[in-house]
Amino acid sequence: MTDDPSSNPANDAAESPRSSEPLDVVRRLEAILLIIDEPQSLVALAAAVGAPIPAVRQALETLVADYGGHRGGPRRGFELREVGGGWRLYVREEYDDVVSEFVNSQAPSRLSQAALETLAVIAYKQPVTRSHVASIRAVNVDSVVRTLVGRGLITELFTDPETGAINYGTTDALLVNLGINSLDELPHIAPLLDDGSAGFDSEALR
Questions:
Q1: HSE-up of residue 156 (Cα within 13 Å, Cβ side)
Q2: How far apart (Å, rounded) are the C-alpha atoms in residues 129 and 164?
Q3: Do residue 149 and residue 90 come from a single domain?
Q4: Range of 201's domain?
Q5: Which residues are CB-neighbours of 58 under 8 A, at least 6 positions away?
Q6: Which residues contact 69 (CB under 8 A, 6 or more apart)?
């Protein structure tokens, strides 16, 4: 006797339609809205939650009212908006500054190429003055050095008693970002150059 696939409970469950009860549609819709990063059309949302378009439209209206505090609950810090023919959750405008500050503190912008090159010179030549770094890079590095100090990647080590020039060096924050324990773990610079015969330690750079 062969088994009839149509009588398999698992198949029955997989093929059974999803509930169209308003609360169930709202919950499924909310779950989808939490993970999308682009506005989705009403049709796309209906397909995603497996519910008729009128039921999804009603669920969207319910969520808009709920997040806006129009159903007896608190007004949320986010809102559901229709933008460009699609729906998506957005931070309320009055909280943009709070979110921006948090995002910037968690994911600082990447260093520019100029900053990376200056940081490399300081890492290999420290203690070193701004004028020395500028002579190596053949450009003014004042603003870049200020940026690196502001990021906590370099610091003022001491001031030359004869010239008054400030000497800079790297901080422990750089080691943490590079995932190393000491500057001794930095790769040797000479093999990375074209001919492998010169580097930041050459007499020409002193």
A1: 8
A2: 10
A3: no
A4: 113-205
A5: 22, 25
A6: 75, 76
When divided into structural domains, the chain yields a total of 2
- Look up the CATH number of the domain holding residue 95: 1.10.10.10
Residues 97 and 130 in one domain: no
Exposure on the CB side of residue 70, measured as CA atoms within 13 A: 8
Q: Which helix (H) or strand (E) holds 169?
A: strand 166-170
Tokens of 123: 């890492």
Taking residue 62's Cβ as centre, other Cβ atoms within 10 Å add up to 18
Distance CA 55, CA 61 (A): 10
Final residue before a domain boundary, out of 55, 73, 101: 101
**Residue 79 burial (C-beta neighbours within 10 Å; 0-12, 13-18, 19+):** middle
pTM of the model: 0.48
Per-residue model confidence as pLDDT tens digits over 33-77:
998 878 899 999 999 999 999 999 999 999 999 999 998 889 999
Distance CA 179, CA 45 (A): 44
| Cβ neighbours of residue 81 closer than 8 Å, sequence gap 6 or more | 87, 88, 90
Residues 131 and 62 occupy one common structural domain: no
* 70: in domain: yes
